[in-house]
Specification:
The protein is of the alpha/beta class. The protein folds into four domains: 123 residues, Rossmann fold (3-Layer(aba) Sandwich); 162 residues, P-loop containing nucleotide triphosphate hydrolases (Rossmann fold, 3-Layer(aba) Sandwich), CATH 3.40.50; 75 residues, Helicase, Ruva Protein, domain 3, CATH 1.10.8.60; 64 residues, no CATH class. Helix content is 46%, strand content 13%. It has a five-stranded parallel β-sheet with strand order 2-1-3-4-5, sandwiched between helices. A five-stranded parallel β-sheet has the order 7-10-13-6-14. A two-stranded antiparallel sheet has the order 8-9. Helix 5 packs across helix 6 and helix 13 packs across helix 15. The longest helix has 24 residues. The termini are far apart.
Length: 470
Amino acid sequence: MSERLVIVEDDPIQSDLLADLLRENGYEVVTFNEGARALAALEADAAPCDLVITDVSMPGLDGIQLCKALKESRPELPVVVVTGETSQPTAINALRAGAYDFLTKPVEKDLLIPCVKRALEKRRLVEELRRREPASESMLFGDSEPMRQVRDLVARVAPSGASVLVQGETGSGKELVAKALHALSPRAKAPFVAINCAALPASLVESELFGYAKGAFTDARAARQGLFVEADGGTLFLDEVAELSLDNQAKLLRTLQERTVRPLGSNTEIPFDARIMSATHKDLEAEAEAGRFRQDLFFRLNVIRVDLPPLRDRGMDIVHLASKFLETVCKRDSRSSLKLSPEVAQKLLSYPWPGNVRELENCVERLAALARSNDVSVGDLPDKVRLHQRGRFHVAADAPEEIVSLDELEKRYVQHVLTVMSGNRSRAAELLGIDRRTLYRKLDAWGLSGNGNGGAADHSAGQEEQQVAS
């Protein structure tokens, strides 16, 4: 069944043009000339839909308002916003409203069709992982640009049979990426088999991977198939692959080259068909260059590489993940919902999270267990999070020897906080420890008051500030 797209466009010529382009590429298309009519049909499920493409400027309910409403009622539905305007604030407002992407008129086919395909792939990925991994799906999803790139790469790579190497710090979710790739692949109904190469002595890795024949060694009272054969038709995930001994690396390389395994104590070669995925918290290419990992095996494993960002580089994802974990804990323990206070959010954002998502999840468990009211308290944070002081702020420069003034340093840091807070000046002021009037004065002095960082989301806050000042 082809996927159905909804076009919301009050200009009939533009509507027909978009519909023709999409139908030529095999999609079913339904059109509406008013945002309110489209919203009513979509919320009532009268128009089954996989993706919405909406114009911004329409009478009545405009495209931004439609996008916001759909994100509340049908958050899984991707929305692509199209407009004749090219201003940055319009694009920012569309993305803040929850739009998957933003296109300008005239819409080019070479941009539209790939955008639609990516959005639909993302939706399939979300739905599949929600079905298979409901408890941990949030580890893979976030609104930060690094995680968007990971999502897009996972969706593109999953259908192939290529070997994948996932690199990232401990606790960043490497196995979840491997499970996502498996779940979205043609092998999804076959086994996903994982082994932690760092958890087994080198002497046991061979028997675990390749199996053994009866009588192969003293305790081998019955034959046992190895994990390669167990994963036949599915996926074999080699976690912490950098910890394999050089001897076991050589045996693994031969197995991957021949696509057969020979159990210990047996003369029989057993063919297998498993997709190989591996992961490590180390830089495997550097390990290979240093001679600690075989280069030929590295090339076999590193056909496609997925680099997972550390949690500290994911901005507001930290707060979103913490809120998600908090919600999960409250449901599990059948207790009233808890909320993160601005003070707790500030502490979470300033801490570097060396343990990444796993450490954040443990921290949230502690907060929920110690909470005395509906708002979790800073005092309930682990000491290392509560007492952490940011040691330095990295100033991006064209040359490492660039030295900037204190005013320029402050300006760059404020811009950084505004970016982390998605342009919301009220929340940025809270994190900076200053009142909004002070922040507005600084932005005016730097000529940044009209750069779009505040956007529509901060307009009401500005009005309120003027009322307070008067």
